[in-house]
Structure formats: C-alpha cells, structure tokens
C-alpha cells in the first residue's frame, strides 16, 4: 500500500469515529457555521504576489519540520507578511495537525483559511465550515469524478471556495467542472514524494482560463515563483520553506519583499 492509500484508509476510520462523537447537526448549529467567508480565489486574482502560506508541523516525506511554534503567532505573522491565504493541515496522524489548529488560526487572523485535509466524506466539509475554514482542498488522486462533483457542490452551497489538486493530465481531465474555483498542481507526487516544478509547467496550458491556477509544494525560492509566473500561475502554496524557520511570518515577509510586482 502506498502512503496515500494508507492515509485514506486511516482517514475513513477516523471519520466514522468523528461522526459518532459530534453529529453533523451539532456542527451545523455552531457559531462559526453561520458566517461570511473570505474568498481566496478573489484575493489571488487581485494579488501581485499570490502566496498561500502553510502551517505544517511534520509530513510523511520530511518527518519533523517544526513542532515548537505557536499557531497563533504563525497565523498573525503570515497575515502581517501580506500573504493571500493560510493553509492549515488538520490531519493528526501524518502531519501533527488538528481541527483545534484551524479554530485557533481563525481566531488569530482574517486571512482566507484553507482546510488542508484528505476529504473523503461530506462530514469533513461541514466540519471545515464549523471550525473556521473558507476553502476546502479536494485531491483528485483519491476521489472519483462523482465525488468531486458532490463535495465541490456541497462546499459551494456553504460559500466555501474549492481548491482541486491534481498531479497529472488524467486527474485534471477527470476534475474540470464549474463548482471548482482554483486548480492546484501539486509538484509533489504524493505516492513517491518526488518533487518537480516541471509538473506545474507541463500541466499549465491544459488548465482552462476560468480557474485560478495554483502551484503547490517544493517552492523554496523566489526564483521558483519567477519561473512559474509566465505559465499563468497566480497562487503559490508554500509550507516547509517557511515552517522550517523559527519565525515563519518573518520568513514570509522577507520572501514577499524579494518578489518583484
Ligand atoms: O508533504 C508531504 O510529504 C505530503 C505527503 C503526502 C501527502 C501530502 C503531503 N503534503 C501536503 C502538501 O500538499 C504540502 O504540504 C503543501 O503543498 C506544501 O508543500 P511544501 O511547500 O513542499 O511543504
């Protein structure tokens, strides 16, 4: 079993347990469920820099990245840096994240928040809204076209943005539909962990213009942004490069200063 299959296998069990602890109806009556959301796709369209900065403690490919930080400081640091949005990993077993991270980030900044999760059930989308997210991630590699349609339409009905992540042409063809806002190309192969910016370059002209293009993973320099921009990318999701430092917000500030408009 590859790592992605393992993550999904565990996630299915986790979601069953979560549902048995907090019923969907309870999530839907929470304070945060009924609120206006921030649009990440609008901010990316208007932005000169397009940085989406991630909170990531550890990962299957790198093990520990940084376990010593306070998510409140990370969120407010990213906001001060001028990023367009923040990605919060909520998976516990493989990434050391949690839904508590999402709620603390929500309380600490007014950035659009992406719930970075392995979504395989409607329940997780309701959870995302109830814990303060504005955007959900759907990963084409683990979903059928029917599931992508069902989950993205549910998200849109809740005023959440949808970032659909692909890694190859087959996943892209399967996923194109009007209920998607942003198309993210993951430069990391989630089955082998190989990272190459060439993946974003190769897929760029196959993404229809109506979707905001986001390049994800393995972006560790301003040079990479300059390399990807001519391919039409408006968003750049960066995790480890910021999180491996003592002060991710300051690192994001320095990074953004070096990007020319
Ligand atoms: O990062 C991993 O090792 C990973 C492994 C398996 C599934 C997903 C994984 N990462 C999620 C992400 O997409 C990244 O955290 C995100 O794009 C930021 O990447 P990076 O800037 O390289 O930290």
Describe the structure.
It catalyses: 1-(2-carboxyphenylamino)-1-deoxy-D-ribulose 5-phosphate + H(+) = (1S,2R)-1-C-(indol-3-yl)glycerol 3-phosphate + CO2 + H2O. The chain has helices at 3-21, 24-28, 40-46, 71-81, 99-108, 122-130, 145-157, 169-175, 198-204, 222-228, 240-243, 248-258; strands spanning 51-55, 58-59, 63-64, 85-89, 113-116, 135-139, 161-166, 182-186, 212-216, 235-238. The chain has 261 residues and is of the alpha/beta class. The strands form two sheets. An eight-stranded parallel barrel has the order 1-4-5-6-7-8-9-10, surrounded by six helices. A two-stranded antiparallel sheet has the order 2-3. Strand 4, helix 5 (99-108) and strand 5 form a beta-alpha-beta unit. Helix 4 packs across helix 5 (99-108) and helix 4 packs parallel to helix 12. The protein is globular and about 50 Å long. The relative contact order is 0.16. The mean pLDDT is 97. It binds the ligand O=C(O)c1ccccc1NCC(=O)[C@H](O)[C@H](O)COP(=O)(O)O. The ligand O=C(O)c1ccccc1NCC(=O)[C@H](O)[C@H](O)COP(=O)(O)O binds at residues 3, 54, 56, 59-61, 186, 188, 190, 193, 216-219, 237-241.
Task: Give me some keywords for this one.
two-stranded antiparallel ribbon; aromatic amino acid biosynthesis; Indole-3-glycerol_P_synth; 261 residues; globular; 8-stranded parallel beta barrel; RibuloseP-bd_barrel; Indole-3-glycerol phosphate synthase; decarboxylase; TIM Barrel; binds the ligand O=C(O)c1ccccc1NCC(=O)[C@H](O)[C@H](O)COP(=O)(O)O; alpha/beta; 42% helix
Summarize the structure.
By secondary structure, the protein is of the alpha/beta class. The protein has helices spanning 3-21, 24-28, 40-46, 71-81, 99-108, 122-130, 145-157, 169-175, 198-204, 222-228, 240-243, 248-258; strands at residues 51-55, 58-59, 63-64, 85-89, 113-116, 135-139, 161-166, 182-186, 212-216, 235-238.
């Amino acid at each position: 079993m590859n790592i992605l299959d393992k993550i999904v296998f565990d996630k299915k069990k986790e979601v069953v347990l979560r549902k048995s602890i907090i019923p969907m109806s309870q999530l839907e009556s929470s304070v945060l469920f009924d609120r206006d959301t921030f649009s990440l796709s609008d901010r990316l369209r208007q932005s000169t820099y397009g940085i989406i900065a991630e909170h990531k403690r550890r990962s299957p490919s790198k093990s520990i990245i940084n376990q010593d930080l306070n998510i409140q400081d990370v969120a407010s640091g990213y906001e001060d840096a001028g990023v367009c949005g923040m990605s919060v990993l909520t998976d516990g077993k493989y990434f050391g994240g949690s839904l508590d991270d999402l709620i603390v980030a929500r309380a600490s900044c007014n950035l659009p928040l992406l719930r970075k999760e392995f979504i395989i059930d409607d329940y997780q989308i309701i959870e995302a809204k109830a814990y303060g997210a504005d955007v959900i991630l759907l990963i084409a590699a683990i979903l059928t076209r029917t599931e992508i349609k069902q989950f993205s339409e549910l998200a849109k009905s809740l005023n959440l943005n949808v970032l659909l992540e692909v890694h190859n042409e087959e996943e892209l063809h399967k996923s194109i539909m009007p209920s998607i806002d942003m198309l993210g190309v993951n430069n990391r192969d989630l089955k082998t962990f190989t990272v190459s910016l060439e993946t974003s370059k190769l897929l760029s002209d196959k993404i229809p213009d109506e979707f905001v293009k986001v390049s994800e993973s393995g972006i560790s320099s301003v040079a990479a942004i300059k390399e990807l921009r001519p391919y039409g990318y408006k968003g750049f999701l960066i995790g480890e490069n910021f999180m491996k430092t003592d002060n991710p917000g300051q690192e994001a500030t320095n990074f953004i200063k070096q990007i020319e408009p």
